[in-house]
Each structure stands twice: as C-alpha cells, then as structure tokens.
C-alpha cells in the first residue's frame, strides 16, 4: 500500500518558502519536490483557502507564506489537506455478520481511535516555527550553500 506523503511534502515546501524573501513559483516548488506543478497548485490552493499561504500572479509572482509560523501547527496543515488517513492498517470487513470479526474490529477501532487522538494532539503541539528552528540548527555553517533550487538536485 502506498503511503500518503502529502503532509510531509507540504511541510517541506513551507519550510523552504520560509527561507525566501520573495514568492516561489509552483514550478520551482514542484522541481524541489519531484512532482508536477499542478500537484503543487492543488495542494497550495487548499492552504490558501485556510489563509496559510497566498499567491501572486504575474512576473515575480508565486506562493508565499501568509501567517506566523509560530501560530501554525502540523495539525493545522494536516486538516487543511483534508484529513488524509493517518494509518495504513485497517479493519477486515468481508464478513460483517461474523461475531469474531466484530470483536476484532471493535478492539482495533478503539486502538486506532486512541492512536489517532494521540497523534493529532502531538501534531497540534508542533509548530512550523519549531521545525524551522530545527532546520536552522541543522543548517549550521552551510547557510550560504543551501538554496531551494539546488537543495534537491541529484
């Protein structure tokens, strides 16, 4: 089963954008994330609807952050993406009348619900400012060599 990495990808893009003083085009972001600009525009439009980013058209246009990173949590971004599934594991539903399947699914549902609540709580505790600070710490003396256009070049 393929994992949904949109949350990770969007967080990645937002942190790159936080390093820029000017808007970033969908094409530049797509190249950095090895995807199509249409995918970037679709994802970013959902974030724009929430007021997290803004877009500017024309020469010098592109995407830029529209909010304070300290007020934006990972949970906020997760919700702006439409609440993608957090777990790849699911219940068997081939025999809904089977009492064993019902017992198993009830136990798994409780466990999944508890795990999801904990994960969402933790996502709410982490802000993009915290991720940015971690990135800055990791960047160290490479500051002048880290550029969005080349950070992901093979």
TrEMBL record:
Q: Which SUPFAM superfamilies match?
A: Winged helix' DNA-binding domain
Respond yes or no to whether keyword DNA-binding is given for this record: yes
Task: Give an example GO molecular function.
Answer: DNA binding
Keyword Iron in the entry? The reply is no
Query: Which Pfam families does the entry mention?
Result: Rrf2
* InterPro entries, alphabetized: Tscrpt_reg_Rrf2, WH-like_DNA-bd_sf, WH_DNA-bd_sf
**Which keywords label this protein?**
DNA-binding
PANTHER family under this entry?
A: HTH-TYPE TRANSCRIPTIONAL REGULATOR YWGB-RELATED (PTHR33221:SF15), WINGED HELIX-TURN-HELIX TRANSCRIPTIONAL REGULATOR, RRF2 FAMILY (PTHR33221)
Question: What is this protein identified as?
Answer: DNA-binding IscR family transcriptional regulator
